[in-house]
Write a structure and sequence with these properties.
GO terms for molecular function: zinc ion binding. This protein is of the alpha+beta class and 115 residues long. The protein has three helices and nine strands, in the order βββαββββαββα.
Length: 115
């Protein structure tokens, strides 16, 4: 599920033809956001989950309890909107027989006018 990219796609279930790379998916909440943090323990957190893992001046991974206090140990990655919108997705009516595949940027138009 996407969050923070665009109103037409945010919080809507999307079935990507090629899966989103694991380094773009939060290991804690499972959401795909514009910015992710690769932690020293190699888990990935979205910016929202990352903010919640700070405890008394140290950060703690919610998945394995690994602790770090140096922000330089975290590798932040952006997921540009343009890159996301180019990815192909299946129509929201795929389970009802629609076989249309389109760039994420065009799926809403198809759903409202061509499906």
């Amino acid at each position: 599920t996407l969050v923070g990219f665009c109103p037409e796609l945010d919080w809507k279930p999307l079935s990507f033809v090629k899966p989103i790379p694991p380094n773009k998916v939060c290991s804690a909440c499972g959401l795909v956001r514009k910015k992710t943090a690769l932690l020293p323990c190699v888990h990935v957190l979205c910016d929202s989950c990352y903010e919640q893992c700070a405890q008394d001046g140290v950060h703690v991974c919610p998945l394995d309890g690994y602790q770090w206090n140096d922000e330089d140990d975290v590798d932040w990655k952006d997921f540009p909107l343009v890159q996301l919108l180019r990815r192909e997705v299946k129509c929201w009516n795929a389970e009802r027989g629609c076989q249309h595949v389109a760039a994420a940027s065009m799926i809403t138009k198809h759903f409202h006018s061509g499906c």
